[in-house]
């Protein structure tokens, strides 16, 4: 198979390039990959694209979106080789989903606000997945999501079934109770009990963040960045091994 070099490529060129790379005359590494071997690449590229979004750098974002698209085309090509579906099937299914879930655009449903449009999307999603209860919708949240992100999404779905919705002050009290229960558990040196108690406390904090309009995954990432900057600043101010040793004992203040 020949691939024509161009000054500017189109989507069809990307598909043809992937076919070539996976062929006998292509790249040995690309040909050897499976869904499992490049699964982590899809996750990493998605996070790098999210970082480019945060930077508001259009050049970087354009590059990273291309890397995400590469992973989509890569996986679709593997499926086409297995005669299960093609990239065209992916596009077709996506378009049909967008039409179905925008009934306020393509159907007779009304949506005068973003909230009403999202409600229509969620209802169509539940119908498509055969979800009859809110618990089924909560279970449908991807288990592969980072735990803080998944916790926030599960909590948002749980709140939709609650009347009235828990307020922030009640959630703050629950989070404090969860933290207070940690002391005795940690002192008992029971690893399983400590993990369970910490998990409940962390979930309570994620629920609190979500109800306060804060994305816990992003909040934790910013806190981590701040911790690293504080550590670096104190490390630069330290003089000699003794000062560094003292720094490591005290740790930066959060």
Please tag this protein with its features.
single chain; 14 helices
Structure, explained:
It is a single chain. It is built from 14 helices and no strands. With about 250 residues, it is mainly alpha-helical. The model has no long low-confidence stretch (mean pLDDT about 85).
What is the mean predicted local confidence, pLDDT? 87
Continuous helix count: 14
CA-to-CA gap between the ends? 58 Å
Biggest sheet record: none
3D shape: globular
At a glance:
The chain has about 250 residues and is mainly alpha-helical. It has 14 helices and no strands.
Question: Which helices and strands, and how do they pair?
Answer:
Blueprint lengths: L10 H11 L6 H5 L6 H17 L2 H24 L5 H15 L1 H4 L7 H15 L5 H6 L7 H14 L7 H13 L1 H6 L3 H21 L4 H22 L2 H11 L4
Helix pairs in contact: 1-4, 3-4, 9-12, 10-12
């Amino acid at each position: 198979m020949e691939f024509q070099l161009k000054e500017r490529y189109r989507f069809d060129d990307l598909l043809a390039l992937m076919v070539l790379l996976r062929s006998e005359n292509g790249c040995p590494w690309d040909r050897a990959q499976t869904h499992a071997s490049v699964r982590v690449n899809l996750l990493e590229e998605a996070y790098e694209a999210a970082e480019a979004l945060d930077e508001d750098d259009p050049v970087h974002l354009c590059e990273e979106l291309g890397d995400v698209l590469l992973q989509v085309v890569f996986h679709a090509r593997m499926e086409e080789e297995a005669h299960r579906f093609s990239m065209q099937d992916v596009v077709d299914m996506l378009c049909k989903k967008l039409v179905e879930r925008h009934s306020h655009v393509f159907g007779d449903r009304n949506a005068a606000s973003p909230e009403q449009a999202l409600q229509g999307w969620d209802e169509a999603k539940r119908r498509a997945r055969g979800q009859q209860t809110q618990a089924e919708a909560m279970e449908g949240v991807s288990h592969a999501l980072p735990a803080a992100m998944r916790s926030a999404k599960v909590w948002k779905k749980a709140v939709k079934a609650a009347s009235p919705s828990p307020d922030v002050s009640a959630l703050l009290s629950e989070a404090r109770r969860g933290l207070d229960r940690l002391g005795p558990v940690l002192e008992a040196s029971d690893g399983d009990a400590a993990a369970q108690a910490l998990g409940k406390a962390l979930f309570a904090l994620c629920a609190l963040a979500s109800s306060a309009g804060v994305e816990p995954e992003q909040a934790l990432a910013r806190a981590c960045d701040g911790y690293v900057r504080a550590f670096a600043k104190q490390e630069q101010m330290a003089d000699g091994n003794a000062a560094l040793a003292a720094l490591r004992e005290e740790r930066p203040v959060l």
